[in-house]
C-alpha cells in the first residue's frame, strides 16, 4: 500500500434544513494513495462535485473526519482557520472548462498560485517553464489563452494545477470538452503525473472509455463511496 494522500472516515454531507434537507453523502469511508489515478463516477446529482469540493477544503462537510496527507484537516469541524492555505499548498484543481485567466498569458497563469503562496517570481517562472516543457507547450509560454487550442489550454490548466507542487489533484470532468484522442492523452498524462510526481489524482468522469486508464474506480452508490476495480479485461483496450 502506498502513502496515504486522502483519507475520509464517516464523512457526511447534507444541504439545507427541515423540508429542504438534501442528504448527499452519508458516511463515506475511503482512502486514496499517492501515485494513484482514481476515477470518481456516479449518476448526475449524486454528489461527485460536492465530494471533490469537500476534499479540496472548499465545501465544509456536515460531519466526519478527513486527512490530507498525514494532516488531519477535519474532525467534525475544520481543524485550521486557514482552509485556503491548505488548499493552496496541497491541492491542484483542474476543471472541465479550463478557467485560464484570459488577460494573463500562459506562464502568468501558471505562476499565479505559487506567487500568491510567496514563491519568488524567478523561481516560480523557472518551475512553470519546466512544467510547460514537460507538457510540450513551452513555445506558447508568452501567448494568451485565446491563441491556444482547447487541448493546449487544458494542458496549461494541468500545468497550473501542478505549479504549487500539490499532493493531491482534483479534476472535475477534465476531458468533457475534448474528443476521444485528446481525452485519452489528458488521462494518460494524469496517470504519468501521479507516478512521476507521486501525487494522488481523483478525476470525475462520465466517460466510460477513460476508466481502463485509471487504477481504480470510486463510485457514489446509495450515498456511500465504494471502491471498484476497473472493468475486467478492458485495461489495455486503449
Ligand atoms: N449549495 C447547495 N445547496 C443545496 N443543494 C446543493 C448544493 N450544492 C449541491 N447541492 C445538491 O447536492 C446534490 C449533489 O450535487 P453535485 O453537484 O455534487 O452532484 P454531481 O454528482 O457532481 O452532479 P453532476 O454529474 O450533474 O455534475 C444535488 O442534489 C444538488 O442539487
UniProtKB/TrEMBL annotation:
- Tell me what organism the protein belongs to: Sulfurovum indicum
What's this protein's name? Answer: ABC transporter ATP-binding protein
All residue ranges annotated as the ABC transporter domain in the record: 6-238
The answer to whether the entry has keyword Methyltransferase is no
Q: What is the similarity comment for this entry?
A: Belongs to the ABC transporter superfamily. Macrolide exporter (TC 3.A.1.122) family.
Tell me which positions the record assigns to the signal sequence: none
Enumerate the Pfam families for this protein. ABC_tran
Q: Name one GO cellular component term.
A: membrane protein complex
Q: Which UniProt keywords apply?
A: ATP-binding, Nucleotide-binding, Transport
In terms of SUPFAM superfamilies, this protein maps to: P-loop containing nucleoside triphosphate hydrolases
Query: Under the GO molecular function aspect, what terms does this record hold?
Result: ATP binding; ATP hydrolysis activity; transmembrane transporter activity
Gene3D superfamilies from the xrefs? P-loop containing nucleotide triphosphate hydrolases (3.40.50.300)
